[in-house]
Amino acid sequence: MYGRKVKLRFFFVLSAFLILVLTVVLILKSLEENVVYFQSPSEIKELLEVKKKKIRVGGMVKNDSISIKTKELEFIITDFKSEINVVYSGAIPNLFEEGKGVVAEGFLKDKNFFIATKILAKHDENYMPPEVKEALKEK
């Protein structure tokens, strides 16, 4: 019924469309695996279940909460409503100190305990990450 050129053109358009759809799906899947969500200690306390996904916890380092044991750093992140204990082993940023804003990236062990793989505190003393600022304003 249709000529050879029409069938060939239809096959070409269909294959180009399928390749485009497959490319978009693969890109979205890749981005989904690499997204790290930000949460405050109060939001973590409200979770129904603890997932084993990498997250970022942000807030202020509680005064008198930093303790250094052998190769581990322990401290408490607070948003002045809730707190979460953090354990980290690795290089500590120069600007990390009590009473300053911090974002820790890692995994939740439970709603009260966080194992950090990275500490993000590379900013001057006046800067606070926008997510932390918004979370503190809400409280």
Describe this structure in words.
This protein is α+β, with helices and mostly antiparallel strands. It folds into two domains: 1-35; 37-138, Nucleic acid-binding proteins (OB fold (Dihydrolipoamide Acetyltransferase, E2P), Beta Barrel), CATH 2.40.50.140. It contains three helices and seven strands. A five-stranded mixed beta barrel has the order 2-4-5-7-6. Helix 2 (41-45) links the parallel strand 1 (37-39) and strand 2 (55-61).
Q: Sheet bearing the most strands, described?
A: 5 strands, mixed, barrel
Please identify the structural class as seen in this structure.
alpha+beta
User: Outline, from the CA principal axes?
Assistant: elongated
| Percent helix range | 25-40%
- The radius of gyration computed from the alpha-carbon positions, rounded to a whole number of angstroms, is 23 Å
Mean pLDDT across all residues, rounded?
A: 85
Number of helices: 3
Would you give the CATH topology of the largest domain?
OB fold (Dihydrolipoamide Acetyltransferase, E2P)
The fraction of residues in strands falls at 25-35%
Provide the CATH architecture of the largest domain. Beta Barrel
| Superfamily (CATH H level) name of the largest domain | Nucleic acid-binding proteins
Assign the CATH class of the largest domain: Mainly Beta
- The total beta strand count reads 7
Q: List the strand order in the largest sheet.
A: 2-4-5-7-6
Low-confidence stretches: none
Spatial gap, N to C terminus: 70 Å
> How many domain modules?
2
- N-to-C SSE string, H for helix and E for strand: HEHEEEEEEH
